[in-house]
Amino acid sequence: MIKVIAVGSLLASSALYANVVAKCTGCHGTGFEKAALGKSKIVKEMSKEDIIAALKGYQDGTYGGPMKGMMAGQVKGLDDAAIEAIAAEIKK
Question: Which positions make up the signal peptide (predicted)?
């Protein structure tokens, strides 16, 4: 029973992160090939570690140029596990 709950939880989390990632594609492109609003780095060229560092940096205000304010709102409330899962989803 515990295994079923754990797998169900993992699948639900994966679906949740996939939905969060889908919101990102509006600006970054479906393959993360676009510079969002012509200003951001191209995410598909970033490593998983760089994505994690960027998302955490947007949260604490230490990362980002012109998109810092917009991205801070997008990542607000994400915990470390969510950020790791989002980066993994983007890089799969």
Answer: 1-18
